[in-house]
Amino acid sequence: MKRTNTFAVRPLSEDGEQLLRDLLDASAALWNEVNYQRLMRYNSEDGFEGGVWDADTGRLEGTYKGVLGASTAQQVIRKNSEAWRGFFGTKNKYHDDSNTSVTEHPSPPGFRGNEDDGRVLKTVIRNTSYTVEWGERSRLEILVGSELKDRYDHTGRLRLEIVGVPNWPNYEKQGRLDLWYDEIDCTFRASQPVTVSNDARDTPLASEKAALDIGANNLVACTTTTGAQYLYKGRELFQRFRETTREIARLQSKLEDGRYSSKRIRRLYLKRTRRRDHAQEALCRDLLERLYSEGVDTVYVGRLTDVLETHWSVETNAKTHNFWAFKQFTERLVCTAEESGISVEVRSEAWTSQECPQCSSTDRTTRHQDTLTCPCGFEGHADLTASETFLKRHTQKAVRPMARPVRFEWDDHNWSESPRSPVRESPKEQRTDPSTVHHDGNVASGDS
Ligand SMILES: [Zn+2]
Fold first, then answer.
1. Residues in Cβ contact with 95 at an 8 Å cutoff, skipping those fewer than 6 apart
2. Which of 17, 95, 293, 330 is most deeply packed, by most CB within 10 A?
3. What pLDDT, on the 0 to 100 scale, is given for residue 434?
4. Which has the closest alpha carbon to 383: 207, 252, 211?
5. Residue 129: exposed, middle, or buried by beta-carbon count in 10 A (0-12, 13-18, 19+)?
6. pTM to 2 decimal places
């Protein structure tokens, strides 16, 4: 079965870093040149003969193989060809009336980067042109072209240190490696597709279940059948998202008549999206690594529509919906889970966030900020309780007694364990203006 190892890598020296940047930049330049030649033919521009596949990629390969090495130059070109074939395939579906899966006309493959921001540093390396060694000091070694070696007075392959532990250290085959620079957190990253034997799936431990409750103040509350509970705090992230949204609205109100956007506005949108995506991606990775080591094989996720319809205020709904990009989040979760052999199941979680775990009442409970209370005497963290109730509803498996919950905060790079870990209300949360908090919703407050 196919799986993917994703990991960060670090050059060992400044020269090594510069060499790697040059390699990634040249790869993007080659991609752009190939793409340009093809796009001009696709658009039938004057001076460009033939169709997309008539572009002279052999000449470009010749130009770039000195820097990239022949195999990497070929891979970059091949990847661009795949992008074009994908585009034509989607376009055919769009024009095929009997096929309803594509409703918007697709765009041809794009360029890597733009004039303002420079090129996107990214390459792709053939399976025989890199090696990975897993161990105490894991490392990646990649092939580089002779011109780059001369430029940096380097011999052999470029060695990079691997940060972290892979999900699949034992595999039969490795595929084409993607290697890129992640601008958001200034880190080089790689993704390595691998084929692992089917036995690898049969981890004896992997039969535990987990359930997620999704919200805005707490992005994810999670309970597992092993008795672990995790809480990913989203308040600050959500607030920054809304601040940027307000700033966009302010700039929009100042635009001249007839103008709808500006470079500044587009950049803010992009920044807002990237920041959210980055945090979401990191959250998925962090959470699934934990679930993997807990031996979880299935994760239940509620449908956000359930949550919204049952107990969120309309106004907060719209904003939260936008912030969450829920579909995208579940897709990301599914992809990340797949790498670890964990399956994600979307289930209805209607009412779980209002149910008292002690007496099962749903109409006597009261939610105030992060606390759920019931006249029967129950009092607990509302979102964690909801994920626990949700889990119990969907699994036959006994749920072990809960350990102390672990709480995480986002610092723009990582989700790290909060030092002051009592999950119950902190003074910061007391600032919430109760008038904007729906009595039983996961509502972020203070919005104007
Ligand atoms: Zn109760």
1. none
2. 330
3. 35
4. 211
5. buried
6. 0.53
